[in-house]
Amino acid sequence: MKVLVIGSGGREHAMAWKLAQSNLVSEVLVAPGNGGTTWSGQDGLAPCRTVAGNVEDIQGLLALAQQEGVGLTAVGPEVPLALGVVDAFQAAGARIFGPTQAAAQLEASKAYSKRFMAEMGIPTAEFGTFTGKAEALAYLDSIDHLVVVKASGLAAGKGVIVCDTKDEAIAAVTDIIDDKRFGAAGDQVVIEERLTGPELSLLAICDGKTAKPLIHSRDHKRAYDGDQGPNTGGMGAYAPVPEVGQDVIDEIMAKVVQPTVDGMAKRDAPYVGILYAGVMLTPNGIKTLEFNCRFGDPETQVVLPMLKSDLAEMMLAAIDGRLNDVTVENHAGSAATVVMASGGYPGSYAKGKVISGLDGVEPATVFHAGTADKNGDIVTSGGRVLAVTGTGADLQQALDSAYQGIKKVNFDKAEFRTDIGQSSIENQQS
C-alpha cells in the first residue's frame, strides 16, 4: 500500500524512513516534505517521494490521499491534528493515524490539558489558567514559589517561559498577554509551579482503549551547552535513558498514560495515535509537564531507529482497535541524535546555505528537517536543519557515532550542542 506522511521536519523524515522499512508499504509520500524525503527503493526501503501539500489545507491533503490511492496516512505535526485532519479523513472513509480534533485538545490547549489532569488525578504541577492580565498578576501575588508561564495554544514548541524571579514572571505574563508574543496561542495563559528534576519523554501508541509504550527518551530543549540559552524545539535526544528503570516506565503508564486514555474514552473522544507524555522526575515523584498528541521532535529520530517492530502494522492495529494483538519490540543498545541548527536559531537566521558532506556520514543516519532541494543542491531552509542520529551498544557508542557524523556535514554558521547525553554519561560514571 501507499503511505502518506503529513509534515516537513526531521520527525516526518524519520517516520517516512521507518514506514519505508515495512513489507506492507510499496511507496511513501511526504507532503510537503523537505530536501531529504525523496529516495529510490534501495537498501530494504520502499521508495519515497516529496509531494506538494500544505499541512493546514485539510481538504487538499484528503484529495491528495484519494488521488494517490493512499492506504494509510500518518500525521506528523500538531497543527493539522488541531484543525481536524483526522476527522475529515475518517468522514471520507480514509485510514489515518492520529487523534481526532477533540482528543488533540490535550496538546492544542494547555488549559484543557491541565484541567483534564486535575480531574483525572494525574500527577502534575500546581497551576492556574487566565485570560486577563490582572487576574494572572493577582495569582502571582498569591503564591510564593517559582513558576513557568505558558501560552495555552500551539506555539511550535516555543510558548514556554521559565522564570527565575517574580519580576520575570510578571514580564512573561505581560509579554504573552499584552505584547502578543505568541499571537492567538497566548489568548489564554497557564501559570504553573516550576518543578525540579530530570525530564523524561515517554511516547505510547494508543488505540482508544489500550496503550503500549515505545522506548523512553530524553531531549535537550535549551539552545546551548550546559542547558543554557533560550528554549528551542529541541537540540538533541537519546534513548533509552540509562538511569531510568522499568519501574519508572510502569509507573508513568499506570498513573499518566492509561488514565489519559481512559479519561478521553469517557469524554467520547477515544485517543488513537501517539500520546507523548513529558514527565519530570521530581523529589516528590513523577509529575506530568505536558502532553503532545503526536511523535516528538527530535525524540522520533531516536525512538524509531530503536523500534524493531513494523511501524505500519502498529499504526493499522491502533486504527482498528486491536493493539493488544501487536507486540512492541525494540532493538538492543542506544540511539542518540544531535541537531545541527542555523546560526542564530531560535532567533533570526539566514536561509539558503549549501549543505555538504551528506553522503558520507555512515554508519550515522541524517534526518533532514529545515532543508530544501535547490537546483540539485541541498540548502538550509529552517532553524533546525538536520538531525544526525547514531546507534550503538550503549549511549557512549551512539553519541560517538552521531558526533562523528556531525564532523562530516557542513554548512555556513552551523550550530550544535556538544553535550547531548552527557548528564547520563556522568551519572553512569559516578
Provide the CATH architecture of the largest domain: 2-Layer Sandwich
Give the strand order of the largest sheet, numbering strands 1, 2, ... along the chain. Answer: 3-2-1-4-5
The rough form would be described as: globular
- Strands, total number: 22
**In the CATH hierarchy, what is the superfamily of the largest domain?**
ATP-grasp fold, B domain
Q: Domains counted in the coordinates: how many? A: 4
Helical amount: 25-40%
User: What about the largest sheet?
Assistant: 5 strands, parallel
Distinct helical segment count: 13
CATH class placement of the largest domain: Alpha Beta
Which class best fits the helix and strand makeup?
alpha+beta
Question: Can you put this structure into words, describing what you see?
Answer:
The protein is α+β, with helices and mostly antiparallel strands and 430 residues long. The chain folds into four domains: 2-101, 3-Layer(aba) Sandwich (Rossmann fold); 132-187, 2-Layer Sandwich (Dna Ligase, domain 1), CATH 3.30.1490; 199-325, ATP-grasp fold, B domain (D-amino Acid Aminotransferase, Chain A, domain 1, 2-Layer Sandwich); 334-429, Phosphoribosylglycinamide synthetase, C-terminal domain (Glycinamide Ribonucleotide Synthetase, Chain A, domain 4). It contains 13 helices and 22 strands. The strands form six sheets. Strands 3-2-1-4-5 form a five-stranded parallel β-sheet, sandwiched between helices. A hairpin with a 2-residue loop joins strand 16 and strand 17 (285-292). The N and C termini lie far apart (50 Å). The model has no long low-confidence stretch (mean pLDDT 94).
